[in-house]
């Protein structure tokens, strides 16, 4: 399913100036990257092709820009996300897969547009033992090379302070891992900009 163009008119370029242009910190991939990519792997995780209903849980629009550390957009960057459903269950055979929400895709892909924008239609991930809610994200840059793998956190989660991975991140870098939240008519918008140290390619910054 292709996201509507209105969903990609996401964040004005001036929003980039509100955040220090430092490289997004890397975080571990974790144990739940899908062993097999689902047939439906588009950017709309709330609807699975052939399912009779949408995913359960609080709707979330995850969106942002992919840029290098001097603010130049990186069109064509390939973004993957994977996350728990509203019950805290991943699309992975090591998890309680028989109990997972079959209306939730669990994994998605998107490609940054000409301005470096990306967007996913998803849900707020549920809690599971030992971790604060988060979304795994990997960005492959258009010129290749090593991908940037990280995790997206939410500012209103009390579990952040107790999360081992988040708390081990240097304090100065933690804000770069936390999305900016806005309310929408049916849920929330989470704005998460990705900054990479790759300087090659990209459109002139405007």
TrEMBL record:
Carries keyword Oxidoreductase? yes
Q: Where is the Intradiol ring-cleavage dioxygenases domain?
A: 62-90
Q: Name one Pfam family in it.
A: Dioxygenase_C
Q: Which InterPro entries match?
A: 3_4-PCD, Intradiol_dOase_C, Intradiol_dOase_core, Intradiol_RC_Dioxygenase
A GO molecular function held by the record = protocatechuate 3,4-dioxygenase activity
The yes or no answer to whether the keyword Oxidoreductase is present is yes
What keywords were assigned to this record? Dioxygenase, Oxidoreductase
The entry sums up its family as follows: Belongs to the intradiol ring-cleavage dioxygenase family.
Q: Which named protein is this? A: Intradiol ring-cleavage dioxygenase
């Amino acid at each position: 399913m292709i996201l509507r163009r209105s969903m990609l008119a996401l964040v004005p370029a001036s929003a980039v100036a509100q955040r220090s242009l430092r490289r997004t910190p890397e975080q571990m991939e974790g144990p739940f990257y899908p062993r097999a990519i689902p047939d439906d792997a588009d950017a709309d995780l709330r609807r699975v092709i052939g399912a009779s209903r949408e995913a359960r849980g609080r709707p979330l629009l995850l969106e942002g820009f992919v840029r290098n550390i001097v603010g130049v957009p990186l069109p064509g960057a390939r973004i993957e996300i994977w996350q728990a459903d509203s019950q805290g269950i991943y699309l992975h055979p090591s998890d309680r897969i028989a109990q997972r929400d079959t209306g939730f895709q669990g994994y998605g892909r998107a490609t940054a547009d000409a301005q470096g924008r990306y967007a996913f239609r998803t849900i707020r991930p549920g809690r599971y033992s030992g971790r604060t809610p988060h979304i795994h994200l990997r960005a492959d840059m258009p010129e290749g090379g090593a991908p940037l793998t990280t995790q997206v956190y939410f500012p209103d989660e009390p579990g952040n302070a107790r999360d081992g991975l988040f708390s081990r991140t240097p304090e100065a870098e933690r804000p770069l891992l936390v999305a900016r939240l806005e309310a929408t008519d049916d849920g929330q918008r989470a704005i998460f900009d990705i900054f990479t140290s790759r300087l090659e390619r990209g459109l002139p910054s405007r």
